[in-house]
User: Fold Beta-xylanase from Hymenobacter ginsengisoli.
Amino acid sequence: AEKGLKDYYKSYFPVGVAVSPRALQNPAEVALILQQFNSLTPENDMKMGPIHPDSTRWNWGPADAIVDFAQAHHLKVRGHNLCWHEQTPRWIFKNPDGSQVSKAHLLKRLHDHIDAVVKRYKGKIYAWDVVNEAIADNPNEFLRNSDWYKICGEDFIAEAFRYAHAADPSAVLFYNDYNTERPEKMERVYKLLKKLKDAKVPIDAVGLQGHWSLVEPTEQELRTTIERFASLGLKVQVTELDVSVYPWEKDRRAKRPDESDAYTPDMQAKQSAQYAMFFKVFRDEAKAGRLTGVTFWNISDHYSWLDTYPVVGRKNHPLLFDENFKPKPAYYEVVKF
Ligand code: XIL
Assistant:
């Protein structure tokens, strides 16, 4: 069989991809996954809302399908995620009468959720994103003012790690976040990680989501971030890599009528250069023992979550494979070393 990313990077780190059960039904996508990747992350199906839609109802089917596929093909699985402010069911924050639950009650529910999910996949999932995106977007604030935070204060973060560790002491436990290379955000993530380490919370690693662009991050920002987090004794992975051809925008909006979504030669050239630079840094950081994995967020430009986020109706082209599942020039940059 033709070599893939997983083969070129065999001595560096596993190369993963985010998937849905639907992709695993499509022969073209299955062929590409098996040729290129040796790790899977469920794109949505292990998040609390999808997998635990009601207090007494679990929707294991889609998550099981991904784990079964991985087992059948000897792929690793990263679990994503156990505690987040999005795709979280409303029931978890409410009493039966509709009032807000107490802190003690919410932590009990968080415990029971984490315990059930982590134990179900024990031995089959080697790493978990335990807490996702707990840092505020506003640079002047520390933690995000989510329902978790409003009800529990910052304790939910440490507790989530303790619950996950108790359920599977062998799993590698991650804090995961985006824009971690921006200096102001990097400092706040560092502050959180340091607090957790100082309190002997069982955290092993940090995930840089890696939703990057043609201009962000710079090589220096990327190296500095990985090395600063690693200085705490944590491993680092890039957990959700894609390189948007548009500038970063946080807020959702509709595509403007006059707005082009052409994938220009200039965008393609800049994107190839970004990917080449990122993977050079990844190889260096892996050899230094700091970086232990890279996962792409979606398989190919046939489908990306960025096609509808944050701009609805604008096609993006953020990955290494095109809409027909063929390697793009950026792919050849990544495997040429
Ligand atoms: C995204 C999925 O890709 C979409 O399908 C879904 O509609 C929203 O969530 N950060 C994360 C991921 O940690 O879970 C998000 O995934 C992308 C941003």
In short: The chain is about 35% helix and 15% strand. The longest helix spans residues 265-287.
